[in-house]
Amino acid sequence: VTDELSENDCKYVKRAVVSGVKVIASAHFEKVEELYSPYLGLFEKYLFLDKNEIGKIRKIYDVDLREVYSC
Rounded to an integer, what distance in angstroms lies between the CA atom of residue 55 and that of residue 15? Predict the structure, then answer.
């Protein structure tokens, strides 16, 4: 579990994920279009939280950035 995942952190997270480690991480993006390499393809799911309601999930995307949930 990590908070505030940086671009530099991604290479280490990728190494862990490829080794079978399950990773939960946060990074600050407001919409899926803002995601860029090295974040792309790193995780099975991408969750976007509501800015106004703490802990409320607004959208979920899969590894290919297809929307799988929208509130």
Answer: 28
